[in-house]
Amino acid sequence: MNSSHPSIHPVEAPPLTLIYEPRVRMKDIQGMPGTPGGLALRFFQFLFAILALYVMVSTSDFTSVTAFCYLVAAVILQSLWSLSLAIVDIYALLVKRCLRNSWIVSLFAIGDGITSTLTFAAACASAGITVLIGNDLGKCAQYYCARFGTATFMAFISWFAVSFSFLFNMWSLASQ
Questions:
Q1: Three-state SS annotation for 3-16
Q2: Which among 21, 65, 93, 162 has the fewest CB atoms less than 10 Å away?
Q3: What stretches in the chain show pLDDT beneath 50?
Q4: pTM of whole model > 0.85?
């Protein structure tokens, strides 16, 4: 009778070798620099900053209020920053390069932090002055108050998009 008998065959342990395995990087999440989502965020930042600039400049008396001049300066800076980083994102997408260099991501994060702070402060100041002129003093023509409010709203939307870019840049920096 040929019956099989279970038996235990000892297995030798593999030799201990220290193998360096590189750290596993996080996948590119849409919204990070060099991704189509990051380019879309830059496009929306630029678009809403330009719209806020256009609406504010289209009024004739925005220069009489310092907060509105500050809003114009902040959205000009925001639009230039977003346009330059959109060009960098387009280049990275065309040549299929990853923007994971810590110096580049640090620069993006610092720039986004500064521009988002300036845009948010300018939008808040403009919103406060718009409410003061329109509701409290009652000295604003209906046409200009609507434009001031629209420009302020566009600046807030631009700030919102910059905030997401800032968070994604910080996330990318922390994952390196």
A1: CCCCCCCCCCCCCC
A2: 21
A3: none
A4: no
